[in-house]
């Protein structure tokens, strides 16, 4: 037996894993309500954009590999952003640049993740976009638990904020006593 710090996940009905327990739970609930693996993946992805915005987002990239039982080979849904229309060699020359900068607005691409997830749902899913987005919309409106460490990390990056940001809602941030988990 190989040692691991992660639990082994087995099941007879299905399984959804992600980097955040809330997103995984959402994906599993999609399966339990009759959705397929692609529906679960899309719903999980949209929730991940909320619970781990520092790791991914709808304005990012997504490379999605899909294969149904009837497919001989897997298919890739490419959600890698393309260069904006005005990002031409001439435009960079006019700015005195001989290469694309490594960071900043001139390095940005047109976001591809959102379109890739929509294409995956359209081409392989069984639920509506409304149903796929419903859990993410609910968490966006009502908040998600925020680990104390994440709150402290955010607070360090927000000038003038105390050490533990607890709840963020439109136009308002509430701060819990230090050491408590908040809602973001």
Describe the structure concisely.
The protein is of the alpha+beta class and 184 residues long.
Structure report:
With 184 residues, the chain is α+β, with helices and mostly antiparallel strands. It folds into 2 domains: 1-81 and 110-142, no CATH class; 143-184, no CATH class. It has helices at residues 21-32, 37-51, 89-94, 113-124, 129-142, 148-157, and strands at residues 62-66, 75-79, 145-146, 167-169, 172-174, 182-183. The strands form 3 sheets. Strands 1-2 form a two-stranded antiparallel ribbon. It has a two-stranded antiparallel ribbon with strand order 3-6.
Task: Throw out a few tags for this protein.
disordered C terminus, two-stranded antiparallel sheet, alpha+beta, globular, 184 residues
